[in-house]
Design goal:
The chain is mainly α and about 475 residues long. The chain contains 23 helices and no strands. It has a single domain, classed as Up-down Bundle (Growth Hormone, Chain: A), CATH 1.20.1250.20. It is globular and about 65 Å long. It comes from Gymnopus androsaceus JB14.
């Protein structure tokens, strides 16, 4: 889905955003001092250093976001549902849903202001703030205060994921992006996959300090997030043009290889008019728009957010202990499949289709459990693929900031839909939610085919219009 399509030569004229591109001298200083083999070794060393500096810390912090966002379902079946009477009417769906309202609305402003505040300042503040909210959720006396905490949680987590994706995509060439996003996401879901087991252990602290088991889930996980947020200020990376961990020579090398690849190594100014112009690009919406009301990543996140494994597993007949413990293996399987199949991302929606057909319509619990492995692997694999597919076909930091925020914020709509289509009254099979998820994946495949065909025709037109005898260049091509 996101493999690179390379142009035959340097870029000239206008890039895909319509702004003039500026290309450097293609690492001339480095090439003059090093042989081809030495230059390749130098490049590998720099990339490995960047990978180790960025991906583990970003993946770990995002795993905390996933844990703090999704532990509501675990806390519910660990006693919170009874204590706060969440089963009355639509209370649980409402508490789950309100998280996504500020999450959707604040994605774009946060990403646009990321450079103004600085990545370390803004992101570490977000982690500390939502960790404090998570901690406060342990002491809510009723469901209304719980809903308020969920609103604050969504507000502070809003800009975090799009900022991480934005930062990662500015450091690498296009054909390198998807594997880095997959590695980052692998770390997050592998760590987050064990959160249910950890939550089960925390819930066994029932009675200590006068708190119920579900309260201890929020106390411990909130405190861990808060402390990691404080430590993150010294560890979070900046954008490549103002980083502090590479030498000036290494930084120049990184910027020049990005300039050669797509011509946007340096940030451009973000203005309200430029943001509006970027929003007028129909491709940003097609990346996410499967129909007039749904978006591409939204459909994928319907699968991820809607599949609260602990609840679905309890509906298969397993008790609380087994449901919590059995929820981890599908995430482990998904974590490894994300990276292994980063080279074959087009097959993930089909994998999700097969998995959720098994979970929804097979009666044997063991086979339905196997379907969760396939469904989770497919949905998790789609996310880095779609993010890479969109970011690889965008040039300029301002448009990258806008597109990343828009795609992920509309993906948050999937959370709202998931909280309504996986309804308590459909327990234990959740057939309407399963059917909606399957239909979304079919629509995803159709839209992917349409957009890929559009890019193919655009690339064909660019190659046909090129005049190598005069310019020797072809404008930047879309990746397919």
């Amino acid at each position: 889905m996101a493999s690179a399509t390379k142009s035959t030569g340097s870029h000239s004229g206008e890039d895909m955003t319509g702004k003039p591109s500026s290309v450097s001298a293609s690492n001339s200083d480095i090439e003059g001092a090093l042989s081809v083999g030495e230059k390749a070794a130098f490049e590998r060393r720099i990339l490995r250093r960047i990978d180790l500096r960025m991906l583990p810390i970003l993946g770990l912090l995002y795993s905390l976001a996933l844990i703090d966002r999704t532990n509501l379902g675990v806390a519910r079946i660990a006693g919170m549902g009874e204590d706060l009477e969440l089963s009355v009417g639509s209370r649980y769906s409402l508490v789950s849903c309100v998280y996504f309202v500020p999450y959707i609305l604040l994605e774009l402003p946060s990403n646009v202001l990321l450079r103004f505040f600085g990545t370390r300042n803004l992101l570490s503040f977000c982690v500390v703030a939502w960790g404090a909210v998570q901690l406060a959720m342990a002491f809510v006396p009723n469901w209304q205060y719980l809903a308020l905490c969920r609103v604050l949680l969504g507000a502070f987590e809003a800009g975090f994921f799009p900022a991480l994706v934005f930062i990662i995509t500015t450091w690498y060439r296009r054909h390198e992006v998807q594997k880095r996003l997959a590695a980052f996401y692998l770390i997050s879901i592998l760590t987050g996959g064990f959160s249910a087991i950890a939550a089960y252990g925390f819930s066994q602290m029932r009675g200590i300090g006068g708190l119920n088991g579900w309260s201890w889930i929020f106390v411990i996980e909130g405190a861990v997030t808060f402390l990691f947020g404080l430590a993150a200020w010294t560890l979070l990376p900046e954008f490549p043009d103002n980083n502090k961990f590479l030498t000036s020579e290494e930084t120049k090398f990184v910027l020049e290889r990005i300039e050669e690849d797509r011509g946007d190594s340096r940030p451009d100014e973000i203005t309200i008019w430029k943001v509006m112009r970027h929003l007028s690009d129909f491709k940003l919406w097609i990346y996410g728009t499967p129909s007039s009301s749904l978006l591409l990543v939204l459909l994928i996140l319907v699968v991820e957010t809607g599949s609260s494994f602990t609840i679905i597993l309890s509906g298969m007949g397993w008790n609380l202990e087994h449901a919590l413990l059995l929820s981890a293996p599908p995430y482990v399987f998904a974590a490894f499949s994300v990276f292994v199949f980063a080279y074959a991302s087009d097959h993930f929606p089909i994998l999700t289709l097969v998995g959720f057909c098994i979970t929804g319509f097979v009666h044997e619990p063991r086979w339905r459990y196997f379907g969760l492995f396939l469904g989770n692997a497919g949905s998790a694999g789609c996310i880095p693929g779609i993010l890479a597919y969109s970011s690889n076909n965008i040039v300029s930091h301002s448009k990258r900031a806008v597109s990343t925020a828009i795609i992920i914020s509309f993906g948050g709509l999937g959370g709202i839909i998931a909280t309504t289509i996986f309804r308590q009254k459909d327990f234990p099979r959740y057939i309407p939610g399963i059917i909606a998820t399957i239909l979304c994946q079919v629509l995803l495949l159709v839209l992917l085919a349409v957009l890929t065909l559009h890019f193919w025709y655009q690339n064909k037109a660019k190659r046909k219009a090129a005049q190598p005898g005069i310019t020797g260049r072809i404008d930047l091509l879309y990746t397919l």
